[in-house]
């Protein structure tokens, strides 16, 4: 059957180009097949040849008048395809057709693969070192994959160490990948250690903690990752935080204490763990020596927070942390007993608190005791306090 009448002619052409069979490519093309509308078999063949580095096939197809910058149905050009495969000679051939050839995503694609020679060649040819289309910046892609030499080369060439692409910076990508050496290189180049990772609603320090990477945590803290009290609670906001890495907790707490020379008045890890009922985390944190009676911006201790929940075991654990936390009052004069009495969900929590040494008759700034704070509809809570000797 004549190839010109064979429906699979386009596939044969692309296959021959991909395998580098120049004579077959010429023979198939010579039949003068009229391609259907919106079909670009010759361009697809050129891109397939570029993906395998077949320079002679690329030259042949371009000689037919095919635009060397044409993209396939997936939006990939021959230059990007050659960069993805790491084919230096194919890159050189395609760059020789400039200015017809656009760089597109060739640079970040090459950086992602760690193809240093191609990265250098594209930068020298004028590719935008911080440009991005469908990928992150070249530096972010190299950092994500842990390509140390490529990261160094891009930084020397002037890449923006804090350039954000796809809502992430090179540092956050390196931390996500767990690449300590790359993290250190970027931090030495003044990467922002507090860069927010919008894609997963985290900070580098929290991501390193989730990964259990004490080494990266230490690097970030040494570089100035700060405001731990405000950021670390986000660590507890996800079911992914299953680690109980005591050394990381201890290191973060040491840093938190170092940052604050006065008693901390902001939400801490213990507040967050108590609110979410993370009993194991509460025990771990108390074991590190954290001050259980540290208060947040409205004067609440972790026990105040736990008192508004149904996590009875957490409440019991905190009550054993000392008399200071049991008797503490918030900015409004409320004890934990006031909080539990007021919240309609917390009958069992109230029961536990009522059997501690907490002052059952303490009045808040409004002059209300815990009994006064109980909603009239909750007779069961009145019974609890009455049986507890109110």
UniProtKB/TrEMBL annotation:
Residues in ANK repeats: 134-166, 265-297, 298-330
Signal sequence, start to end: none
InterPro entries the UniProt entry points to: Ankyrin_rpt, Ankyrin_rpt-contain_sf
SMART domains in UniProt: ANK
SUPFAM superfamilies: Ankyrin repeat
UniProtKB keywords: ANK repeat, Repeat
Keyword Repeat: yes
Name recorded for this polypeptide: Ankyrin repeat
Origin species: Apiospora kogelbergensis
Lineage, uppermost ranks: Eukaryota, Fungi, Dikarya, Ascomycota, Pezizomycotina
């Amino acid at each position: 059957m004549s190839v010109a009448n064979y429906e699979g002619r386009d596939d044969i052409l692309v296959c021959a180009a991909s395998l580098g069979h120049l004579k077959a490519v010429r023979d198939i093309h010579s039949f003068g097949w009229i391609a259907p509308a919106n079909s670009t078999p010759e361009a697809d063949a050129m891109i397939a040849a570029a993906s395998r580095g077949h320079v002679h096939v690329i030259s042949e197809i371009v000689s037919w008048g095919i635009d060397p910058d044409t993209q396939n149905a997936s939006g990939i050009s021959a230059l990007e395809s050659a960069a993805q495969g790491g084919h230096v000679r194919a890159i050189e051939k395609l760059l020789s057709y400039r200015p017809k050839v656009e760089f597109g995503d060739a640079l970040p694609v090459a950086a992602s693969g760690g193809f240093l020679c191609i990265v250098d060649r594209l930068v020298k040819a004028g590719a935008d070192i911080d440009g991005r289309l469908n990928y992150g910046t070249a530096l972010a892609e190299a950092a994500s994959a842990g390509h140390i030499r490529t990261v160094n080369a891009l930084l020397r060439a002037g890449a923006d160490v804090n350039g954000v692409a796809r809502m992430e910076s090179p540092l956050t990508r390196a931390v996500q990948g767990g690449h300590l050496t790359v993290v250190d290189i970027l931090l030495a180049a003044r990467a922002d250690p507090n860069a927010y990772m919008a894609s997963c609603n985290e900070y580098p320090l929290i991501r390193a903690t989730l990964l259990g990477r004490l080494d990266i945590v230490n690097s970030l803290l040494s570089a100035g990752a700060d405001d731990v009290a405000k950021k670390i609670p986000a660590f507890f906001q996800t079911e992914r935080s299953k680690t109980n890495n005591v050394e990381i907790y201890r290191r973060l707490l040491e840093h938190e204490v170092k940052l604050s020379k006065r008693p901390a008045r902001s939400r801490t890890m213990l507040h967050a763990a108590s609110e979410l009922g993370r009993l194991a985390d509460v025990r771990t944190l108390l074991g590190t020596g954290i001050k259980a009676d540290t208060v947040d911006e409205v004067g609440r201790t972790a026990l105040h927070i736990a008192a508004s929940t149904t996590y009875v075991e957490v409440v019991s654990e905190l009550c054993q942390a000392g008399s200071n936390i049991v008797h503490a009052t918030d900015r409004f004069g409320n004890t934990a007993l006031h909080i539990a009495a007021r919240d309609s969900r917390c009958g069992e929590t109230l029961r536990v608190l009522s059997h501690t040494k907490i002052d059952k008759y303490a009045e808040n700034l409004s002059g209300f005791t815990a009994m006064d704070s109980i909603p009239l509809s909750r007779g069961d809570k009145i019974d609890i306090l009455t049986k507890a000797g109110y």
